[in-house]
User: Which sequence fits this backbone?
């Protein structure tokens, strides 16, 4: 029986993925900051709800050890935990910048680092990192979030090369918009009193992001879980998995444009 360890399994994509793999007969280490959020998951067979905060290395080590003790191994590591930071970059507070990279970049790195001795010992293992369509193309007023997702894509692309000779695979799942807590409780905002230079363009961009019509193309977290399951089980060497119709559409359109043509299009599109 195979085992997956998931970070950020308390809600959204992580929770939906825990349910999908459990239903498919896998052992699931559903890790989260507050295990009380996973009470219902803990009642399912073959699911261990474990504390793991990706900014706390001791909790990463402890959760991996607890998974090995309970299930005897880990086949797939899913780095899913993450959140968004939006607004003008000029307004960022150092603590906001540090928490964004600590969670979305350093967290996955430390989690991969802690799993690798186990994967090396068995000459197998699969790492799936959840990035975003925002790891391939940039939208306005999301600069630092994009920085984390572009960063994790680069880390993953290089790591895939150094791990392949050891029998370990790395894959990326890149969702488009997903109906989760991401744009609500998981979104931090950069703003600075007296900084009004961005007001007009920020309002323009926010009117586009908040347009209800935009959300019609979004995926449900269960659809993203299906893509993650395919990435874990299809046996293919494929590296990137776009997840959601909107992500596929955006990536397709972006690929046809030069950097400059994309910039000109985005300035119009986001009313900047
Ligand atoms: N929703 C979208 O539109 C979208 C699009 C592209 C990519 N993504 C990516 O998908 C991933 C999951 O997001 P989601 O959409 O499912 O949003 P979500 O429902 O808000 O879930 C985010 C998860 O990350 C966890 N988390 C945050 N900081 C953490 C930390 N320090 N340690 C451990 N867990 C932490 C949260 O835990 P708590 O419950 O403790 O806060 C929660 O379980 C993220 O990496 C996000 O960047 C989302």
Assistant:
């Amino acid at each position: 029986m195979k085992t997956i360890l998931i970070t950020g399994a308390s809600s959204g994509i992580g929770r939906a993925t825990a349910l999908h793999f459990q239903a498919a007969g896998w052992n699931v280490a559903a890790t989260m900051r507050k295990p009380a959020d996973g009470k219902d998951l803990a009642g399912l067979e073959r699911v261990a709800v474990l504390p793991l905060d990706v900014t706390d290395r001791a909790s990463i080590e402890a959760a991996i050890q607890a998974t090995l003790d309970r299930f005897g191994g880990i086949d797939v590591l899913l780095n899913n935990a993450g959140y968004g930071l939006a607004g003008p970059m000029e307004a960022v507070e150092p603590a906001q910048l540090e928490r964004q990279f600590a969670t979305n970049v350093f967290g996955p790195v430390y989690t991969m680092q802690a799993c690798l001795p186990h994967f090396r010992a068995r000459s197998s293992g699969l790492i799936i990192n959840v990035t975003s369509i925002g790891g391939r193309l940039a939208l306005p007023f999301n600069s630092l979030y994009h920085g984390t997702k572009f960063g994790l894509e680069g880390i993953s692309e290089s790591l895939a090369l150094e791990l392949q000779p050891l029998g370990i695979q790395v894959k990326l799942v890149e969702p488009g918009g997903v109906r989760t807590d991401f744009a609500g409780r998981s979104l931090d905002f950069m703003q600075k009193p007296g900084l009004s230079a961005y007001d007009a363009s920020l309002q323009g961009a926010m009117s586009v992001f908040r347009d209800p019509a935009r959300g019609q193309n979004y995926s449900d977290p269960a659809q993203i879980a299906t893509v993650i399951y395919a990435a874990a089980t299809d046996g293919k060497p494929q590296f990137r998995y776009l997840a959601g119709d909107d992500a596929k559409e955006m990536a397709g359109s972006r690929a046809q444009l030069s950097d400059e043509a994309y910039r000109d299009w985005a300035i119009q599109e986001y009313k900047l």
